[in-house]
Specification:
Layout lengths: L8 H30 L4 H27 L14 H24 L8 H30 L3 H18 L1 H9 L6 H46 L15 H9 L2 H32 L5 H29 L1 H22 L4 H36 L7 H12 L1 H18 L27 H25 L7 H13 L11
């Protein structure tokens, strides 16, 4: 009789999201402003740093995924097949090592220890390298721990709960942030990093102990069957390992994968555009009409609400499917943006709701996409007849093609800001050649150019993104009966090697 542990595997898995989000949310909100406003990085160094970061940010995901999962791409000798619990142990070992290192790399941003351009480049690459290792293996566990939509939704549910708790760091950070004196903010960041390090160490250790027991049970069963000559598969020869070129060729023929990454590239861009420019929009669109405390509340809500909303979205996913819910969110983003454009920049309360809801629904969509990638892992496993699902590698390949959106967001955003308003965040002086150089005479409001330009950015970016995403998402076919058929085939092929998450 198996003893059910006090804390479920789903809860422990979800808690790992807490130790990531408490640091990453603060990073996204303050790293650009820290280097531009405090360290005074010059424009060339900023663009060079972002360009190098673009390359590293894209390459490290598939590189780490390939190093992790390349052994799963070829059929092994009979009797040597790696079981799912062993794969999970491998991922947990990576998390226990890279989690604390990720937290330490987070601290490197908040103290000036080198020339701004050099520090910007090194900090970004170091931080993103460890973040990639942590996020890649954490995401891959979603596909390794469960196959059914219900179990994966349950795992994602716990991630959303803990990510919402992690977003409280944004509320707290606003109280400590002071561009004139970073001491309090630095102490706050050290406290967050220490909490994250302890959390990664304890949770990964608990999970590893749990799955080590599972591995021992599976091995004992295999040895007993071998001694009795029961269930012994005929001897087969190992196939030649799949090369990276062959793997890329297989992915290029995976139509659902290609349409998904097209949509997700735009989604990653939009998410990071909102994160990078949210404080700027608050300052120039709302600061004259709302108090600082209201701005802090809006900022906090924009980070916490997506995770809370995701709890509701996941219940909708169980009823209508992930594909349909994501499609509705794209349509909602488009509709809200058009309404805001027609209403204009002078409706302050409507603008507050729109800015917050735009970020909430955009981030909420991002939280659901891991479920779609897990489904793509299933389809890749079935279509290409893998001996073991290559979840980390597929998550890495998705990142290779979509993470450039993370770098394009601040680059395109600062360019649009300069084009529309003549406002250069590096020089803090207006540029003469701007598209918006006069007040809004048509409306009679006398809107300053900077405020009007920010308004155009905040409505036209989501409209463009939504239209592109709806076009790509309409071509995605892995849903409904086709998805159910893929899951049935994977469960049948890996019978005896999968984990019952509820029983662990």
């Amino acid at each position: 009789m198996r003893v059910v542990p006090v804390v479920s595997t789903a809860v422990l898995y979800g808690s790992l999201a807490l130790f990531i989000s408490i640091l990453h949310n603060v990073f996204l909100l303050y790293y650009v402003e820290t280097f531009v406003s405090i360290y005074k990085i010059d424009k060339v160094s900023f663009w060079v740093g972002e360009a190098v970061f673009l390359i590293w940010n894209s390459v490290n995901d598939p590189l780490f995924g390939w190093l992790s999962d390349r052994s799963f791409l070829s059929s092994p000798q009979s009797g040597s097949q790696v079981t799912t619990p062993e794969v999970v142990l491998k991922r947990l070992q990576a998390l226990s090592t890279n989690g604390p290192l990720f937290a330490l790399s987070f601290l490197a941003f908040w103290v000036a220890w080198a020339r701004p351009g050099l520090q910007f480049l090194l900090c970004l690459c170091l931080y993103d390298g460890f973040l990639t290792m942590v996020d890649l293996h954490h995401s891959a566990l979603l596909a390794d721990l469960a196959v059914s939509a219900a179990d994966r939704t349950r795992l994602n549910f716990h991630c959303s709960v803990f990510s919402a708790l992690g977003s409280l760091s944004v509320f707290l950070s606003y109280s400590f942030w002071d561009k004139e004196d970073l001491y309090s903010f630095r102490v706050f960041c050290v406290s967050l990093a220490a909490f994250s390090i302890v959390g990664f160490f304890l949770v990964s250790r608990l999970l590893r102990r749990r799955f080590q027991k599972e591995v021992r049970v599976r091995r004992d069963e295999a040895m007993a069957l071998k001694e009795l000559s029961v269930g012994q598969a005929p001897l087969t020869h190992a196939e030649n390992p799949v090369t990276i070129g062959q793997y890329l060729k297989q992915l290029s023929k995976h139509r659902n994968f290609m349409w998904f990454v097209s949509m997700n590239l735009v989604q990653v861009f939009h998410c990071h555009f909102n994160s990078n420019f949210f404080p700027l929009f608050l300052e120039h669109l709302l600061s004259d009409n709302i108090t600082a405390s209201t701005g802090s509340i809006l900022l906090g809500i924009s980070y916490i609400a997506p995770h809370l909303n995701n709890l509701y979205f996941l219940t909708l996913c169980q009823r209508y499917g992930v594909y349909q819910v994501i499609r509705w969110l794209f349509m909602l983003k488009l509709g809200l943006s058009v309404v805001m454009l027609l209403a204009g920049a002078d409706h302050i309360y409507l603008l507050c709701i729109f800015i917050a809801s735009n970020r909430v629904f955009t981030e909420g969509t991002c939280k659901l996409l891991k479920l779609v990638i897990s489904d793509l892992v299933d389809e890749d496993y079935v279509v290409n007849r893998r001996p073991q699902a290559t979840s980390a590698l597929l998550f890495g390949m998705v990142a290779l093609l979509t993470k450039p959106g993370q770098t394009f967001a601040p680059l395109i955003g600062t360019w649009l800001l300069c084009v529309y308003t003549g406002y250069d965040i590096f020089e803090r002086e207006p540029v003469r050649d701007s598209l918006v150089s006069v007040p809004d005479v048509a409306s009679g409001s006398g809107t300053p150019p900077l405020r009007l330009g920010c308004f155009y950015m905040v409505v036209f970016v989501p409209i463009t993104c939504a239209l592109l995403q709806l076009a790509a998402w309409s071509r995605f076919t892995l849903h409904g009966r086709k998805l159910q058929g893929i899951k049935t085939l994977r469960q049948g092929a890996q019978h005896g090697h999968l984990i019952d998450v509820k029983a662990i």
